[in-house]
Design goal:
Length: 477
């Protein structure tokens, strides 16, 4: 534990009103959106300026405790779960949209800005911020950048990193630097900005972020398609891409998920479907209308049972609700919901979908599968009771086999949730020993005392143990 004297210094740095250490607060900030991962911090700090953050980090280096940055805690890899001998940093006061530039098509925001708020603000001005993670209504831009968040529009528009122009970052030693610039084109030196994007709070703390915006699409149409086989949806994706159509959204739900959503949201979905596909096409109205007809024709050719296009904005929202409520609906089925992600090349989707079904049967676990069909990012979701140790073990085997299959098909163990604590044991299997060692060396170079979100993504070398880990070991002994 952090000593009372050091905690008193931290209280003095942030002010008593920004210092939380009650048992209730420690429990509240002991976990994120990842099940079965929990660790209470020694205190929770709410910094209100970059200077305060720098002071905290400098003290952490001097006294040997860990600092764990946290956005809204909606992460699904354990990235913001505290570690022993740590404090949690919260960013609710740093939530200003600093500027929106209509000429340069940029927005500059503080790290604590909620994603949906930024989206709403720029859309009122005829602009568009495409990244749309499922947690957009609560997640922060800083958290999105730390995890390189994706979302429903990833197929056409990419993920968070595609929209970050510049980052103001406080390094582990407390120094403030700017990575990137407000220029659209910038190839000065090594691309450090992109190394920090997706670094999961292990390399630096983001303060201000400059984002690229787009003009808001003129028109969009949302479609729902029902298929009677998993194989058909793989063919459907291939046919749509061969037609040179790039949907803004191309999502799917499997049978178990459809049943859960219908029971939860009462949308009138048939519960005997093998798969439900949602497509959103956007752009110029004439092009969108032409593409809608092409997608209709492809779906009919592949034997779709039912095809519907939304007739209004409210109708489109209702169709999207089927996908957006998938996690909440599945979470009602069992006490513990393990929402994972793995990605594969589109051409391997049919094989991967069938493998997931097979693994679930072999391990006797209840799995609902949904996700981003267009970019091959699947979300197999295992429903278990964490008090049943055998069921937990079977779910672990299911996910291990799923990740192995993704790697075999040329994919990745995570497409958007991150590595964190939950998947670090699979990282070397996915990337190889050399890559993990390079990551370790970069972390060691930038954070020699390993004070910033330690133990996430990978463990450090045995000779490179942070001062906070050594301190904690002495206390435990």
């Amino acid at each position: 534990m952090i000593s009372p004297a050091v905690l008193a210094m931290l209280r003095s740095i942030v002010g008593s009103e920004n210092y939380l250490d009650s048992e209730a607060d420690k429990v509240l900030y002991s976990y994120d959106g990842t099940p079965m991962l929990r660790q209470k911090p020694d205190a929770i700090l709410i910094p209100r300026s970059t200077e305060v953050i720098s002071k905290i980090l400098r003290l952490a280096n001097e006294e040997g405790f860990a600092v764990v940055p946290r956005g809204s805690g909606s992460g699904l890899s354990g990235g913001s779960v505290p570690v022993p001998n740590s404090v949690v940093l919260l960013f609710p006061p740093m939530n200003k949209i600093l500027s929106i530039d209509d000429v340069n098509l940029t927005a500059k925001v503080e790290a604590g800005v909620i994603t949906a708020r930024l989206q709403s603000e720029v859309e009122r001005r005829g602009l568009f911020y495409p990244p749309d993670p499922g947690s957009a209504s609560i997640s922060t831009i800083g958290g999105n950048v730390a995890e390189n968040a994706g979302g429903l529009r990833g197929l056409k528009y990419g993920v968070t990193k595609n929209y970050v122009l510049a980052l103001d970052v406080i390094l582990p030693n407390g120094e403030l630097i700017t990575l990137g610039s407000e220029s659209v084109k910038d190839v000065q030196g090594l691309n450090l900005r992109d190394i920090f994007i997706g670094s999961e709070g292990t390399l630096g703390i983001f303060t201000n972020i400059t984002l690229r915006l787009l003009p808001k699409p003129e028109h969009s149409v949302v479609m729902m398609i029902h298929f009677d086989s998993i194989a058909a949806i793989g063919e459907f994706v291939a046919e749509v891409m061969l037609a040179r159509i790039t949907p803004a959204m191309l999502e799917f739900l499997d049978r178990n998920t459809i049943r859960a959503v219908e029971d939860y949201a009462k949308l009138g979905l048939p519960t005997d479907l093998a798969a439900l596909v949602l497509v959103e096409l956007d752009g110029y109205k004439l092009v969108v209308e032409d593409d809608v007809q092409t997608v209709f024709a492809i779906a009919k050719k592949l034997g779709a049972r039912f095809i519907k296009a939304a007739e209004s904005a409210d109708d489109a929202l209702k169709l999207k609700l089927a996908r957006k409520s998938a996690f909440s609906a599945l979470a009602r089925l069992k006490p513990t919901t393990i929402l994972e992600d793995a990605s594969v090349p589109r051409s391997k989707l049919p094989d991967m979908l069938l493998q997931i079904e097979s693994f679930a049967k072999q391990e006797s676990v209840l799995v609902g599968n949904f996700g981003h069909l267009g970019d091959g990012n699947l979300h197999p979701t295992c429903l278990i009771n964490e008090r049943d140790s055998d069921e937990v073990h079977r779910s672990e085997r299911f996910f291990e086999r799923t990740f192995e299959a993704a790697i075999k098909f040329g994919g990745a163990i995570t497409g958007e949730h991150g590595t964190g604590l939950a998947k670090k044991k699979y990282l070397e299997m996915a990337t190889g020993k050399t890559q993990v060692e390079l990551m370790r060396k970069f972390k060691e170079a930038i954070d020699p005392n390993n004070i910033l979100n330690p133990s996430k993504m990978f463990d450090v070398n045995s000779l490179f143990r942070s001062k906070c880990e050594r301190n904690f070991s002495r206390v435990v002994k």
